[in-house]
Amino acid sequence: MRVLGLDPGLATVGFGVVTVSHGKFEPGQYGVVTTPANVPLSRRLDTIYSDAETLLSQLKPDAVAIEELFFGANITTGLTVAHARGVLLLATFRSGIPAYEYTPSQVKQSVAGYGKADKRQVQAMVTRLLGLDAIPRPDDAADALAIALCHCRAATSLMFNDSSI
Question: Which of 110, 103, 95 is nearest to 66 (CA)?
Answer without folding.
Answer: 103
